[in-house]
Design a protein that fits this description.
Elements (H helix, E strand, L loop, with lengths): L2 E4 L5 H10 L9 H14 L1 H12 L10 H10 L2 H18 L7 E3 L5 E9 L2 E5 L8 H14 L3 E5 L10 H10 L3 E3 L3 H10 L9 E3 L4 H10 L4 E2 L7 E6 L5 H12 L6 E6 L2 H15 L5 H11 L1 E4 L3 H11 L3 E5 L4 H4 L7 E4 L5 H6 L25 E9 L1 H17 L3 H8 L5
Parallel strand pairs: 1-11, 4-5, 4-7, 5-6, 7-8, 9-10, 9-12, 10-11, 12-13
Antiparallel strand pairs: 2-3, 3-14
Length: 429
């Protein structure tokens, strides 16, 4: 079931190439369907949303917006214990993300020259939250709280209803706690189209964030340019680095925490101990059988499960840097010895008491992470995703005069005489 690799028999590059052969193509086969849905929503607005709600969600809605009464009812339904957990998680997420806030700067070192940068919040953000086979109130917190810290004025959330036309109460409770401004019962590609272009009920936004299935991901890709998006997320993945001191039961449990997400999810163990490798393989079989989502977990392990033997932890880190995992667990006794060697990872979990699930729900760092090796060039969702930067420049007449010829020469080298003239014309009568 699990594919084995050995860095003493194959190079790291060769193993990486083999692993990438198993990666799923970004083409999902839904491009045409999504394009048609977006076109229909652009043309017919709420009428199209009602049609798709009846078709896909099997419910007929008179109004798409979730009422204050529905939100308060959900808040009561979920129970005090879960509300307390949501509040604790909110505090942790806020505490982490408030340190990401950037400040304006001004450079005023030369006579007659002022330069600077302003940090401005995006005005309207759309938050998409799945609500079908799995509901993710954690994603509400992780996407909304950084936006609130950034100063986003309007946060509009869409999430699919059930067949009774209701939204999962845990999602509504999380939305109330996080501070979402308006919530609409719309899911799938049609929700992304509504957020991008607006309808009679749903306002158009400036950026769309949040997870979703292949249809949602494709819709985000197609509306990019009209609006901003956070990322095109692929299936979730985890890489665990473990030595011979680790408990194979715990290592297997951590790998399965991602395997149960999706049949296309990837779980990789890189270990310095051959016995641990085989013990973990046995545990994966035993523990997967006990999961309610065992069919998904077994399919994930069958399709994308990997165990890699490395001679030492440094080699394991090098292997991980090539793979660039979404989640990286370094399960050794002195994990901070290796942290600075990690170059490519979405989020790093250090030591034997730090399961990836801690980051999904509670610790504070964002759980919206770069997948499919994109940690080589992209980052977790942050306050930065909800702001834009505007630069400004001021030159006095004397300051411009001092550099005018340089500007004009540069422009002429690029064949843009109009640019040159715009500078020198201020001093030629």
């Amino acid at each position: 079931m699990i594919k084995f690799y050995d860095t003493t028999e194959m190079t790291i590059d060769a193993i990486t190439e083999e692993i990438r052969k198993d990666e799923i193509s970004t083409k999902t086969g839904v491009e045409g369907i999504v394009s048609d849905i977006i076109a229909e929503v652009r043309k017919n607005g709420d009428k199209a949303l009602k049609m798709y709600s009846e078709k896909f969600d099997k419910t007929s809605l008179d109004s798409f917006e979730v009422s204050e009464e529905e939100i308060n009812e959900a808040y009561q339904v979920v129970g005090e214990k879960f509300l307390e957990i949501l509040e604790k998680a909110k505090a942790n997420i806020y505490n982490f993300h408030k340190r990401q806030v950037r400040t304006n700067f001004v450079i005023n070192e030369n006579d007659g020259i002022v330069l600077g940068q302003k940090i401005l919040p995006i005005e309207k953000v759309g938050l998409y939250i799945p609500g079908g086979t799995a509901a993710y109130p954690s994603s509400v917190l992780m996407n909304c709280i950084p936006a609130k810290i950034a100063g986003v004025k309007d946060i509009i959330m869409t999430t699919p209803p059930n067949t009774e036309g209701k939204v999962n109460p845990t999602i509504l409770a999380a939305a109330k706690i996080a501070g979402v401004d308006r919530i609409f019962k719309v899911g799938g590609s049609q929700a992304i189209a509504a957020l991008a272009y607006g309808t009679e009920s749903i306002p158009a936004v400036d950026k769309i964030v949040g997870p979703g299935n292949a249809f949602v991901a494709e819709a985000k890709k197609q509306v990019f340019g009209k609006v901003g998006i956070d990322m095109i997320a692929g299936p979730s993945d985890i890489l665990v680095i473990a030595d011979g001191t680790c408990d194979p039961k715990i290592v297997a449990a951590d790998l399965l925490s991602q395997a149960e997400h999706d049949k296309l999810a990837t779980a990789v163990l890189v270990t310095t101990d051959r016995k641990l490798a085989h013990d973990v393989e046995k545990e994966l079989q035993l523990q997967a059988e006990l999961l309610p989502r065992k069919e998904i977990a077994f399919a994930s392990l069958e399709n994308n499960g990997k165990i890699i033997y490395a001679e030492n932890i440094d080699t394991a880190i090098e292997m991980s840097n090539k793979i660039a995992p979404e989640h990286l667990e370094i399960c050794v006794d002195n994990p901070f010895d290796y942290l600075n060697k990690v170059k490519n990872a979405g989020s790093v979990f250090l030591g034997k008491n730090c399961p990836e699930a801690l980051g999904d729900y509670f610790a504070g760092p964002n759980h919206t992470l770069p997948t499919s090796g994109t940690a080589r060039f992209s980052s977790p969702l942050s306050v930065d995703d909800f702001v834009k930067k505007t630069s400004f420049t001021y030159y006095s007449a004397d300051a411009l005069s001092a550099v005018c010829e340089d500007v004009a020469c540069f422009a002429e080298k690029e064949g843009l005489s109009g640019h040159a003239r715009s500078a020198v014309s201020r001093f030629k009568k």
